[in-house]
């Protein structure tokens, strides 16, 4: 039975692990919480408590990786706007562990924030141009992993993550004079995130990168107004006095190379 390790069984990592188990794979997963170890174990995941710090790894990371050929790294940098933090150093601490392990292929969950907003369509060939601290650190981490010759790394850059329990409109409801009313949305549902990851693993699509956002791009104003009405929330209002800053994520590579069809349209 093929074994996969997931570093970070959170909002996406946990349901991903469950989906891989349903496909007959063995899954090792990590959490930073003692309480969540039981949750992972009850789901059939082999649990490990691992905490990454800027200069140290706490917990049995080597054991988490042992016996797995694939490692999924799903740890958000948790840097909003230009907040300080050292996500790069955290990833550097795990590289020696991966190099010494049985892992041959790494899937790093990144973000389309590495492109910035340049009022253009974005493909995997677009030059990276992050305009936030989180995006800048993700760009550095992507290079660290892809330039490591001890394993092959595929970068998966998601747009905004949504799911049945998660939609940005809940934070925008009732707010006034929001920027960029005409900017297209670039969102992706949790179910498609999982489907794409499974397809990368199934097709052995390593040593490359993919952009992932549902090919459905109404304006922010149109989408969030409609979504607020659907959820019974107060619709936000938008500021039209300034030009909208935007990007549109193109996903031809996912649809053609992975032969993947998005499941959740419209969002």
For the structure shown, list the relevant keywords.
267 residues; alpha/beta; 7-stranded parallel β-sheet; two-stranded antiparallel ribbon; 9 helices; globular
Largest sheet: 7 strands, parallel
Say how many strands there are.
13
As a percent range, the share of helical residues equals 25-40%
**Alpha-carbon Rg, integer:** 19 Å
Q: Biggest sheet, strands in spatial order?
A: 3-2-1-6-7-9-12
Q: First CA to last CA: what distance? A: 35 Å
Tally of individual helices: 9
Instruction: Tell me the quaternary state.
Output: single chain
Shape: globular
Note poorly predicted spans: none
Helix and strand string, N-terminal first?
A: EHEHEEEHEHEEHEEHEHEHEH
What structural category do the secondary elements indicate? alpha/beta
Short account of what is shown:
This protein has 267 residues and is an alpha/beta fold. It has helices at residues 13-22, 36-42, 61-65, 87-99, 133-146, 169-172, 190-202, 220-230, 252-257; strands at residues 3-7, 26-31, 46-49, 51-53, 56-58, 70-73, 105-111, 120-122, 152-158, 160-162, 187-189, 209-212, 247-249.
């Amino acid at each position: 039975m093929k074994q996969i390790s997931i570093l970070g069984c959170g909002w996406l990592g946990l349901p991903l692990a469950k989906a891989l188990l349903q496909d007959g794979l063995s899954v090792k997963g990590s959490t930073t919480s003692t309480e969540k170890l039981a949750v992972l174990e009850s789901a059939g995941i082999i649990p490990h408590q691992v905490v990454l710090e800027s200069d140290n790894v706490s917990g049995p990371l080597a054991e988490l990786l042992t016996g797995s050929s694939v490692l999924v790294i799903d740890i958000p940098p948790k840097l909003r706007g230009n907040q300080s933090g050292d996500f790069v150093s955290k990833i550097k601490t795990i590289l020696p562990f991966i190099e010494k392990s049985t892992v041959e292929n790494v899937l790093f969950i990144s973000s389309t924030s590495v492109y910035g907003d340049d009022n253009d369509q974005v493909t995997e060939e677009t030059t990276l141009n992050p305009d936030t601290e989180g995006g800048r650190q993700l760009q550095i981490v992507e290079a660290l992993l892809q330039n490591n010759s001890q394993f092959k790394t595929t970068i998966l850059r998601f747009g905004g993550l949504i799911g049945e329990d998660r939609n940005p409109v809940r934070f925008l409801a009732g707010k006034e004079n929001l920027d960029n009313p005409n900017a297209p949305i670039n969102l992706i549902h949790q179910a498609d995130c999982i489907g794409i990851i499974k397809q990368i693993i199934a097709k052995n699509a390593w040593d490359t990168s993919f952009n992932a956002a549902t090919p459905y791009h109404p304006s922010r104003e149109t989408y969030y107004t409609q979504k607020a009405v659907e959820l019974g929330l107060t619709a936000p209002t938008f500021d039209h006095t300034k030009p909208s800053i935007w990007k549109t994520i193109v996903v031809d590579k996912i649809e053609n190379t992975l032969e993947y069809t998005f499941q959740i349209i419209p969002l």
